[in-house]
Structures are given as structure tokens and as C-alpha cells.
Write a structure and sequence with these properties.
- With about 425 residues, the chain is α+β, with helices and mostly antiparallel strands.
- The chain has two domains: about 250 residues, 3-Layer(bba) Sandwich (FAD/NAD(P)-binding domain), CATH 3.50.50; about 160 residues, Orthogonal Bundle (Helicase, Ruva Protein, domain 3).
- Helices cover about 30% and strands about 25% of the residues.
- The protein is built from 13 helices and 21 strands.
- Helix 1 packs parallel to helix 6, helix 1 runs parallel beside helix 13 and helix 10 packs across helix 12.
- The chain is elongated.
């Protein structure tokens, strides 16, 4: 007899779990409280959907920020190659871009959703849209039933052999990620690591940042420093040089509240909200300070009789020039031939280290993913089954797993979902 399996959530992990369970001869029902599937998939990658990352599978774990070892079984069981083969073989052509990021050729996330949804339907899964699961019941340490309801309908109780929780975290709550999975987990005795926004923009204290609103910078360097509790300068007491907790290169964007963009979002994965933090922006990462000083000297020599404010067009975008002049402390009207060596060297150092003070991050409404979730210590990594309740499985963002940008978080969803579905059907 096939096992009767409920999957809660029709997102990336949920659809993959349902598909894997159905292919392993499970009788599967998906419950989704939204009126359509894959609502969060639809907005990922700015609507293009960064499906996975084509890096070598052994390199994948280096991009996972929390609990990478927990993922070994899931990822090696269903890796990025398997994901790409699935979509390609089901008619959704893919392409690989900079940083090994994989997207649908069409650049439409809807193609990813439709491909998955068609495969789930073809596998015979019973899909219940607009239906909200209210609780998961367990009897003598075994999953026994779920209760659910839809608008205007009475509450229904239905027995199941296994339940796979794929409800996501609490990021982008408008997509339906409202923490239901955490409640289910707690009600059944599980621990939940505090949920925090991740892959999220930073709020910055310096008022000049607002003057740059809308300015996008490419090919810049960014370092994140965090102070040790009670210390103003990390490493000061030991005499050691301060080390950044993040050091990256890429693209960023200034906003009305601070900074955003891929580089900033990735840096936020390493940000500890219990410690003060600051950013150092390197506007010319391809040049050393010595090389940059030669470049600045050359510009100065070419405009000896010009004012300082009029010789910076070759170094910065026009919107950035007034800010850099202000931060340098050099009189904008000052002739270049009167700028001292000390002023020039300090200006070069500023270009390589533009300081910004972090006051916090934006909310879950702007966070791409959730950091925290159901503790993986209570989940069997070989099956995704709960160690506390037999027949209860978890997959995707509801778990305490998160990674950098680049398709890694969706790969976590595909891998854990596939393993949970297969395990639930075969147990």
C-alpha cells in the first residue's frame, strides 16, 4: 500500500517534495493557503528566478552560512546537476551567467513555476490551493492527521501517514511566509532558532548616503567589520590587525535609508545584530593605494590650474563627486596645485576606505530569506525526518539553513525537499 503523505506549502521545497514522494509511489496531497503555487519563486532573482548555482558540488557548502554539514546527504542525493537536468528535461531551458548563477533562458520565473507545477500534476499529486493547514496531530509520537480549512468551509480533519512541512520562513510575508511552520514545529515539541532577516539591505547612519539615493556602483569592494562586545576597536588590546567578517567584490546600490544590492545582501549574511558594525567601501579595488596615488597624481598634473571640484570627473560618477569632496575635507574651490601631499594621500586612502556606520538591517518585508528556523539538531539529515515525531518531515527555508545569494538557497530547497519526499514515501 502506498503511504498517504501531506505536504504543507506549494513553493520550491513543497513541490519538489511532493514530486519526489509521488515518484516513490506515495499518495500525496499538497496544501497551499495561497490561491496559486510558487508565489515566492515568482519574485526571486528580481522575477528571473536564480534556479541554482552551477559551481562544483563540493564548493557549494562554502556558500552556506548556517549548518552546511547538515546538508551533505541532501545535496549529494539531489545536487545542482540533478536540478538543471530536471528543468531541462521538462522543457524549461536554462542558462548560466556570471558567478555560475543559473536562470531560465526566458528570464521569467513563471517558467520555473509552471514547469514544476505541471510535473507535480502529471505525477498525480492532489493539489489543494486556497486551503490553510491549522494544525498537525501526533499520536504516541507518530504523525496522525492534519486539520485544515478554506474560506467559508468547515474545518476538516484528515489522517495521513506522513506530513512534510515546507512553509518557508517569515521573509516576504506577503507571499504567505508567515511562520506557520515554526508554530507547527513548536506545538510538536521542536526548538526553533530565532528568525532574523537575511540577504537584507543595511540602514546607514551617515546622512550623506541619502544624497546618493539611486546611485548604483559596479566593480567595487566592500568590507564588513564588527566590534567585539565592549571594545571600540577589535584587536586593539592584542595589537592584532582588525579582520573583516566579510570582504567582497561586486555591485551595490545607495537608497534613502542606506545601502542595498547584491554585494550588500551577501554581506548581511555575516552580520551579527548583537554587535555594532561598519562598512568600508573601496571605490577602486583593482588598484593598490600606491597605484591609485599615481593615478590621482596624473589627474592632478593634467589639471594643475583647475579647482579640486573640477578634476574628479574621471574618478567618480557625477553624483558621487560632492560627497567625496565633503568627506575629504578639502576645499572644493582649492586649486589643485595647492593641495598638499598629506591631503592627497588622505584622499587616496578615503577612496579605498569610504566609511559607513550600520544602524541595523531592513525588516522581513525586504529580506530575501530568513535566518534561523527549526533546529536541525532535531532533524535526521539523512531523511529530513523529525527525531521527535515519526512521520514528520521538514524541508526548505523553514529549517535553520541559509546561504549567500547566487541560487544557493533555492538549491537548499530543492535538495531538502527531494530528500524529504523520497524518504517519506519509502519509510
Amino acid at each position: 500500500m502506498s503511504k498517504k503523505i501531506a505536504v504543507i506549502g506549494c513553493g520550491a521545497a513543497g513541490m519538489m517534495a511532493a514530486l519526489a514522494a509521488a515518484e516513490s509511489s506515495g499518495s500525496v496531497t499538497i496544501f497551499e493557503k495561497n490561491e496559486k503555487p510558487g508565489k515566492k519563486i515568482f519574485i526571486t532573482g528580481k522575477g528571473r528566478c536564480n534556479v541554482t548555482n552551477a559551481c562544483a558540488v563540493e564548493d557549494f557548502f562554502g556558500y552556506v552560512k548556517r549548518n552546511p554539514r547538515f546538508l551533505y546527504s541532501a545535496v549529494y542525493d539531489y545536487d545542482n546537476t540533478a536540478v538543471m537536468e530536471f528543468f531541462e528535461s521538462n522543457g524549461c531551458r536554462l542558462k548560466t551567467e556570471r558567478g555560475d548563477r543559473v536562470f531560465p533562458v526566458s528570464d521569467h520565473s513563471s517558467d520555473i513555476i509552471n514547469t514544476l507545477y505541471r510535473a507535480v500534476q502529471k505525477a498525480g499529486v492532489n493539489i489543494q490551493l486556497g486551503v490553510e493547514v491549522l494544525s498537525i496531530e501526533a499520536l504516541s509520537g507518530n504523525v496522525s492527521a492534519v486539520t485544515y480549512s478554506s474560506d467559508g468551509e468547515p474545518i476538516t480533519r484528515e489522517e495521513f501517514d506522513s506530513v512534510i512541512v515546507c512553509t518557508g520562513g517569515v521573509s516576504y510575508p506577503s507571499t504567505g511566509s508567515t511562520g506557520d511552520g515554526y508554530r507547527f514545529a513548536k506545538e510538536l515539541g521542536h526548538s526553533v532558532v530565532t528568525a532574523l532577516p537575511s540577504l537584507v539591505p543595511f540602514e546607514i547612519a551617515e546622512p550623506w548616503v541619502k544624497d546618493l539615493q539611486g546611485l548604483s556602483l559596479r566593480n567595487v569592494g566592500l568590507k564588513l567589520f564588527q566590534e567585539k562586545n565592549g571594545d571600540n576597536k577589535p584587536g586593539a588590546k592584542s595589537g592584532k590587525k582588525e579582520k573583516p567578517v566579510y570582504d567582497g567584490f561586486g555591485e551595490m546600490l545607495f537608497t534613502h535609508f542606506g545601502v542595498s544590492g547584491p554585494l550588500v545582501l551577501t554581506a548581511s549574511c555575516s552580520y551579527d545584530r548583537d554587535r555594532s558594525g561598519r562598512l568600508l567601501l573601496d571605490l577602486k579595488p583593482a588598484l593598490s593605494e600606491e597605484q591609485l596615488d599615481k593615478r590621482v597624481l596624473r589627474d592632478f598634473d593634467e589639471g594643475l590650474n583647475k579647482q579640486f571640484k573640477n578634476i574628479l570627473g574621471g574618478l567618480f560618477p557625477s553624483k558621487l563627486i560632492p560627497v567625496m569632496i565633503k568627506l575629504s575635507g578639502i576645499d572644493p574651490e582649492k586649486p589643485v596645485n595647492e593641495i598638499t601631499r598629506e591631503e592627497r594621500l588622505a584622499f587616496v586612502k578615503l577612496i579605498k576606505n569610504v566609511p559607513m556606520t550600520i544602524t541595523g538591517t531592513r525588516s522581513f518585508n525586504e529580506a530575501i530569506i530568513t535566518r534561523g528556523g527549526v533546529s536541525v539538531k532535531e532533524i535526521n539529515p539523512s531523511t529530513m525526518e523529525s527525531k521527535l515525531v515519526k512521520g514528520l518531515y521538514f524541508a526548505g527555508e523553514v529549517l535553520d539553513l541559509d546561504a549567500e545569494t547566487g541560487g544557493f538557497n533555492l538549491q537548499i530547497a530543492w535538495s531538502t525537499g527531494h530528500l524529504a519526499g523520497k524518504s517519506a514515501a519509502e519509510a
